[in-house]
Design brief:
Number of strands: 22
Radius of gyration: 27 Å
Distance between the termini: 61 Å
Structural class: alpha+beta
Strand content: 5-15%
Largest sheet: 11 strands, antiparallel
Shape: globular
Helix content: 40-55%
Bound molecules: arginine, glutamic acid
Length: 721
């Protein structure tokens, strides 16, 4: 029996093709040929792995870009025109907006190249090539080394590889660990710095449904914006100059008008940020039961306050819309994530897996030596992390990233520090200039009245929700002096502090001298931020750092043992902000008992949601007219204009703006979100409910052409009928 089993196992190992089997996964472009292409083709994909990623010929990867670091975008014309999400271009659109030119509310359309708006600081990055450099990274690393020696060797090897890769070219290079540090890849990139805003629909289209519909299917958001990449005369990256010319990409995506139906092959090609698919049950327990609940609670409060302020005043709406979108985006995701983890019983399942794994480890002496300590050690480390992690996150939620006057006050420390030693006039001058410049950005989007409300609420919550031993001394002092009633001190504070008013701030910096330092040291906001950081540095961060880095090391072995335990499975690496391919098909889902969601929506649904009394559902008149007169152009399916669709592609934050590609390699949509029921896919993918949400490219074309009257932009695109 035993020999038979062994023979069977061997046959499996020899004949089982190393191909991935499920739609789950974010795959490495370089390895598509090896692991994925067969299944992709079975699912309908008509092209080859080389059409996706190649260093020998122009291919899709040459049209996919990392947009501004946190999003993805894709090139859709030979003249460097790119499309990404409205929420990815939001910061830029907002920067160009004021009460006079409110592009957030009214949209923006350059009617000629001259009217395109430059965006200092915005870059887009293309991948030129990638390579597995594991062997080189591990060169000289021995079993006998201590963890520190090992890290040191690896880091110096990586630096060497990076340096070599970027030598004699204009590219940048970096090496990233994959599979928790079991494998390393080198990435060589090219970044462009002159990227101009070409078009954006009004928020009533680009953000239709707002935070109410965010993370929710069925969806009707026209979440796109258009930019153009400019290059120097040599087609190479250049700083902004009016003499720059539109970048000529190696490849741009043809756009398909053919449409989508349930079951069609789809592929998403972009930059997923981070996932934790292979963590132990202890980690999921920490996220679900310790971290998320605390963070959800405090964000609920912040959002309530900001929402009320935004609804009361037009300027505050402009000032706080991006901030609020950021706050509420994670807040809502955490809620969905916890519900999903509960529904999937992820913690229980991981525990079951871990006990089976433990049995397997214990069945072999060598395995016990290598892996026997991992899980018990996780248990110890997470019991510490469960306490420290929420303290650290909650504290930043209150101070550095909560009350804005407190967070902002910290910037001045670099100037104050210059007065301690022998003052260097030149350095002081630069520090002052930097502060004045940062103040413009800060106060443009600052409302002291709203911040005061945040101050009162957050100071109170910090005192109530963290155990007293985790509260900073300066905070405790202030709390006792106002007897726990922060509203008593708030008015005076906000009327006097230099951090709550631009004029006071500028005057203060303008005349800043040695005696200003003592005045600064009496500012309550400044005192708080310094003390809180001192407190964290002394009591939280060192231990948190030690525990986290030990966990990271365990993760590497835990990954190895999982791969060894399940040899037949092809593992995809966790997302790490590198370019990945996800594939699957257009697919609806059952959201809850008795409710099945179809995989696409149309403009008809926008009209159904229309409600001028609700900001998020206030449909622009022009769109209503187009609908009433059925002025749809060629952008229809079954007589309606499609808006969004869902598929079971595995995506996460960072995939926003990613091209969604059909079996022919043509662009059919732009990824922008996931459906709420399945957002726990960052930790555990749920095949029956994890869905990515994409804008149907035909809606974007319809808006550009019929709504905005910027149809000239379509002339440069390659549109496939
Ligand atoms: N949930 C999407 C993402 O994670 C969209 C966020 C922007 N939209 C919004 N309504 N806040 O980025
Ligand atoms: N909206 C997300 C982003 O900005 C994508 C949604 C997700 O997390 O999958 O990347």
């Amino acid at each position: 029996m035993k020999t038979k089993l062994l023979a069977f196992a061997l046959t499996l190992m020899i004949f089982a093709a190393p191909f991935s089997r499920a739609d789950e996964g974010m795959w490495i472009p370089l390895l598509i040929e090896k692991y994925n292409i067969k299944l992709m083709q079975e699912k309908g994909f008509k092209l080859s792995a080389e059409d996706i990623y190649s260093v020998n010929k122009a291919c899709m990867k040459d049209a996919v870009l990392s947009f501004g670091g946190g999003c993805t975008g894709e090139v859709i014309s030979p003249d460097g025109l790119l499309i990404t999400n409205h929420h990815c271009g939001y910061g830029q659109i907002q920067k160009h907006s004021s009460l006079e030119h409110d592009y957030l509310t009214d949209g923006f359309w350059a009617m000629s190249r001259e009217e395109e708006l430059s965006n200092p600081g915005l870059t887009v990055t293309f991948l030129k090539s990638m390579a597995d450099v594991t062997d080189k990274v591990m060169e000289g690393v021995t079993k006998e080394m201590t963890a520190e020696e090992r890290d040191k060797k690896i880091n110096s090897n990586m630096a060497e590889i990076r340096k070599k890769a970027a030598e004699g070219n204009n590219y940048s290079a970096f090496v990233r660990p994959f599979y928790m540090g079991n494998q390393y890849f080198l990435f060589v990139n090219e970044s462009f710095r002159d990227v101009r805003l070409v078009g954006a629909p009004p928020s009533s289209i680009g953000k239709f449904g707002g935070d109410t519909d965010n993370w929710i299917w069925p969806r009707h958001t026209g979440d796109f914006s258009l930019f153009r990449i400019y290059a120097g005369k040599d087609n190479k990256p250049a700083d902004y100059s009016k003499d720059n010319i539109p970048y000529k990409p190696l490849y741009h995506f043809p756009i398909s008008l053919k449409g989508v139906k349930e079951g069609d092959f789809t592929m998403v090609f972009g930059y997923p940020g981070s996932t934790s698919e292979y963590v132990p049950s202890y980690h999921v327990d920490m996220v679900k039961n310790y971290l998320n609940p605390k963070m959800i609670e405090i964000r609920t409060k912040k959002i309530d306050i900001i929402d009320a302020a935004m609804n009361s005043d037009k300027l505050i709406r402009i000032q706080y819309s991006a901030k609020k979108a950021g706050l509420s985006n994670s807040w809502k995701k955490w809620i969905g994530e916890n519900q999903g983890l509960e529904r999937m019983k992820t913690i229980d399942k991981k525990r079951e897996f871990e006990s089976k794994l433990t049995e397997w480890i214990n069945a072999d002496k060598e395995r016990i030596d290598k892996y026997g300590k991992i899980l018990p050690r996780y248990a110890e480390l997470y019991s510490k992390l469960n306490e420290l992690n929420p303290v650290s996150s909650y504290t930043s939620e209150v101070f550095s990233g909560g009350v804005e006057a407190i967070g902002f006050s910290r910037n001045i420390k670099s100037l104050a520090d210059l007065y301690n030693a022998t003052p260097d006039a030149e350095k002081i001058k630069t520090a002052k200039a930097n502060l004045l410049a940062s103040a413009d950005g800060f106060f443009k989007n600052y409302d002291a009245g709203t911040d005061k409300k945040l101050f009162i609420a957050l100071m109170t919550m910090y005192g109530e929700n963290l155990a007293p031993e985790w509260q900073a001394p300066e905070y405790l002092k202030i709390k006792s002096s106002c007897k726990g009633d922060f509203s008593k001190i708030a008015d005076k504070l906000y009327d006097k502090s230099v951090f709550t008013d631009q004029v006071r701030f500028k005057a203060f910096i303008g005349s800043f001298n040695k005696s200003s330092v003592s005045k600064l040291n009496k500012d309550l906001f400044y005192l708080l931020i310094l003390d809180v950081n001192k407190f964290l540095d002394a009591n939280v961060r060192p231990e948190l750092g030690r525990v986290s880095s030990e966990i990271q090391k365990l993760n590497r072995d835990f990954m190895t043992v999982q791969m060894e335990y399940d040899k037949a499975r092809v593992f995809y690496p966790d997302a790490n902000s590198t370019l990945r391919v996800s594939y699957g098909s257009i697919k609806g889902y059952e959201s809850r008992d008795g409710v099945y969601f179809k995989p696409y929506t149309t403009v008809k649904g926008i009209m159904e949601k229309d409600n001028p009394a609700i900001y998020d559902y206030d449909v622009p008149e022009k769109l209503k007219t187009l609908y009433r007169t059925r002025d749809f152009g060629p952008y229809t399916q079954d007589g309606e204009v499609p808006v969004c669709f869902i598929a079971n592609n595995h995506t996460t934050g960072g995939n926003s703006g990613s091209p969604v590609i059909n079996a022919d390699g043509h662009l059919i949509g732009v990824n922008f979100d996931r459906a709420w029921e399945g957002v726990a896919s960052d930790i555990a993918f749920n095949p029956s409910q994890s869905r990515n949400i994409s804008l149907d490219i035909r809606y974007a074309l319809f808006i550009i052409d019929k709504f905005a009257g910027a149809g000239y932009l379509l002339n440069e695109m390659t549109i496939v009928k």
